[in-house]
Design brief:
This protein is an all-alpha fold. It is 85% helix and 0% strand. It is built from seven helices and no strands. Helix 4 runs antiparallel to helix 6 and helix 6 runs antiparallel to helix 7. The radius of gyration is 20 Å and the shape is globular. The termini are far apart.
Amino acid sequence: MAGKQYKNTPLERGQRITAIVCLCFLLGCIGGAVAANIGGQSEEANLALFLQEKLADGAQMEFGKVVWKYLKYDLLIWLGGWLSMGVFLSGCICLFRGVSLGFTSAMLMASYGKEGILLTCLGILPQHLLLLPAYLGMTISAIYYLFAWEEEGIRKKSRRQDKKRKRMEYVILLCISLLFILAASGVETLLSPVVLRYFNQV
C-alpha cells in the first residue's frame, strides 16, 4: 500500500547494524595502519625500544591485569547500550580498538620486517581471534538493544515481560563476551612469555 510506511524487521535491522559496525572496525584498522606508516622513524624507534625492554625482562603477564585491560572496553561498549547517546560511546570504543590493532600491527611489521610479521601472528593474532567476536558482537548488541529500548518508550502497550526478557538477553550477551575475553586473556598470558623468549634469543 502506498500510504503504509515500511518497517524494518529485527533481522534486517540486525544485519544492517552488523554491516555498519564491521565496516567501521575495518576502516579503523586501515586508519591505524596508515597512521603507523606515516608516523615516522621516531615512533618506530620508540616501539622498538619498548619491545626490547620487554624482551630483555622476559616479563610474565598477570592474568588479572590482562583481563582488566580488555574487559574495561567491553564494559564501556555494553554500558553504551543503556544510554540515550550510547551509540557514539559504543561505536567510538569499537573504532578505537580497530585503530589500535591496525596501528600496533603495522608498527611491528615496519620495525621488525619479517620478524615483525611473525611477532604479529604469534603475539597479537591469537588473542584477537577471540577478542574481535567479543567487541564486535557487543557493539552490535549495544546498538541493536539501544533501538529496542527507544521503541519500548514509544510503544505504550509494550509488555513488562518483553522488557524484562530483552534486558536479560542483553546481560547474557555481556556474560558470553566475558567468556571470550577470559579465553583471550588466558591465551595472551600463556603465549606472550613464549613469544618474548623466542624473540629474546633472535
